[in-house]
Amino acid sequence: SKDKGKDGFSFYEPHMKEKSVRIMQLELELRKAIDNNEFILYYQPKIDLKTNEISGCEALIRWNHPTMGMVSPAEFIPLAEETGLISQIGEWVLREACLQNRKWHEAGYNNFIMAVNMSAHQFKQPTMIGMIERILHETNHEAKHLEIEVTESVSMLSEEVIMSQLYALKRLGVSIAIDDFGTGYSSLKYLDMLPADVLKIDKSFIDEIGRMNHLSSSLMTNAIISLAKSLKMKVVAEGIENIDQIHYLKLHNCEYGQGYLISKPLPACELEMKFMRSNEK
Ligand code: C2E
Ligand code: CA
Ligand code: CA
Ligand code: CA
Fold first, then answer.
1. Pairing relationship of beta strands 54-65 and 39-48 according to DSSP bridges
2. In angstroms, what is the span from residue 264 Cα to ligand 1's centroid?
3. Lowest mean pLDDT: which of 19-23, 31-35, 165-169?
4. Would the CB of 241 count as within 6 Å of ligand 1?
5. Which stretches make up the EAL domain (predicted)?
6. 180 alpha carbon to ligand 4 midpoint, in Å?
7. pLDDT tens for residues 100-134?
8. What is the pLDDT of residue 6?
9. Which of 25, 28, 201, 217 lies 20 to 30 Å from 70 when distance is taken between CA atoms?
């Protein structure tokens, strides 16, 4: 069209009008953030609800921008996906998480499992498996101590690409966790076909436990726990915030737990102080 300049760029593209100034600013800044070392990983512990021992953690990215301050991943991950920057960011996250876990393994925590989130966009990249293999090799990190968290909505896309990526991950020896489980609409038949090792019960179900009308949600929680067991999968409850919830989950034999009651996501050194040094006998 004649509105477009030489490079095809137009200020009158409909999507441009909708983009707020903030989003455009974020996008520019996001491109510089990796080079400027503005990202940092926080780690949220997962505990074995039987022993109360830490079994591993989930790596969660934080963006500490020099003037905007902390930007939430809920805000910039979708933008990173839209712009394709997620590939670079995702690679940085994986390398950083594996390097950190190597250090913890060398310090004696040699069963510690590191979980890393991966979004739909990353799963659609044909280079994803090669990238993971390379990072595991570079960081000398064992595949079996890495877990990839993928939301139920992603695993649900029964697109062949995603399915074959999940199987390739499995062959590498990496574990697969289905995040936010219970919020999508997976059929049991489909779930049984997925090469997944872990179900993470979505926080929305945990939130209802202990509340007045919690019957249906606790039924869902119970159903997911027994579903996981019958499929020989591990089960993790996320977003545990109070004692009632943790009691309930222990009583119903949920294996692992994660949430603010146990710990908020922490920088590596704080997680060490809180969960590791004190454990050293
Ligand atoms: P998620 O994977 O479902 O992660 C759980 C979110 O809940 C995290 O928010 C965590 O800090 C928060 N959370 C944990 N326990 C509690 C609790 O007891 N109460 C409450 N209210 N919240 C709790 P966060 O760190 O802001 O991350 C938001 C989302 O951003 C994540 O949701 C994930 O989808 C995405 N994300 C974070 N890091 C990465 C990453 O490195 N790569 C990708 N692709 N996505 C990421
Ligand atoms: Ca997650
Ligand atoms: Ca989740
Ligand atoms: Ca989520």
1. antiparallel
2. 10
3. 19-23
4. yes
5. 23-279
6. 6
7. 999 999 999 999 999 999 988 898 888 999 999 99
8. 47
9. 201
Q: How far apart are CA 94 and CA 129, in angstroms?
A: 12
CA of 115 to the centre of ligand 4 (A): 14
Measured from the Cα of 180, ligand 1's closest atom is 3
Helix axes 21-33, 73-83, angle to 10 degrees: 80
3-state secondary structure the chain: CCCCCCCCCCCCCHHHHHCCHHHHHHHHHHHHHCCCCCEEEEEEEEEECCCCCEEEEEEEEEEEECCCEEECHHHHHHHHHHHCCHHHHHHHHHHHHHHHHHHHHHCCCCCCEEEEECCHHHHCCCCHHHHHHHHHHHCCCCHHHEEEEEEHHHHHCCCHHHHHHHHHHHHHCCEEEEEEECCCCCCHHHHHHCCCCEEEECHHHHHHCCCCCCHHHHHHHHHHHHHHHHCCCEEEECCCCCHHHHHHHHHCCCCEECCCCCCCCECHHHHHHHHHHHHCC
Per the model's pLDDT, the better-predicted residue between 19 and 226 turns out to be: 226
Q: Buried b / exposed e across 174-211, counting CB within 10 Å, b at 16+? A: bbbbbbbbbeeebeeeebeebebbbbbbbbebbbbbbe
Tell whether ipTM is more than 0.95. yes
Both structure tokens of 76: 């910039």
> Is pLDDT at 157 greater than 70 in this prediction?
no
